[in-house]
Amino acid sequence: MPDEVPTGAIELGLWDERMFDVVRQRDAAYQSYLFMVDMARESLNGALAKLGEQRESLASMRDDRVVLVRNTQGPEVTTYHSADGPCGRVIGKSRRLSSFDRKLEGEVRSRLSRCGACHWPPPVPVLG
Ligand SMILES: [Zn+2]
Question: How much distance in Å is there from the Cα of 34 to the middle of ligand 1?
């Protein structure tokens, strides 16, 4: 009697199916982990790039003056005031310092202009 030649697919027992299922789930868990690590890495790189730009920008403003920008409703804000020598629009009657935000001059210089009524001390000489 000749040996039977197997035809068709290999039949799997229940144990084999269970084991393949565990292996598949293990692979899926690992792939999911890798995906999350990639996402976290991208998020971290984005945050670090943004913080790097902020640090570079702040480094260029190291010697900038502190200025005051009105934060209340009213006419459009077009000027900023000196924190060291504020004019009457900042410290006059019925004015409050809480109506102004402290900023570095470099943060506002491109969109606002200096108040002409404030006292602006001469720039601090840079020691070399
Ligand atoms: Zn002013």
Answer: 56
Residue 66: partners with Cβ closer than 8 Å, 6 or more residues away: 83, 84, 102, 103, 104, 105
Threshold 0.85, pTM exceeds: no
- Ligand 1 centre from 72 Cα, in Å? 15
Residue from 88, 93, 90, 42 nearest 69 by CA: 90
Q: Is 53 exposed, middle or buried (0-12, 13-18, 19+ CB in 10 A)?
A: exposed
Give the Å distance between the CA of 62 and the centre of ligand 1.
Answer: 22
Instruction: Mark residue 94 as left, alpha or beta (left: phi above 0; alpha: psi -120 to 50; beta: remaining).
Output: left
- Look at 27-31, 49-53, 82-86, 123-127 and tell me which has the smallest mean pLDDT: 123-127
Residue 60 token pair: 């260029």
Distance 108 CA to ligand 1 centre (A): 14
Q: Measured in angstroms, how far is the CA atom of residue 106 from the centroid of ligand 1?
A: 17
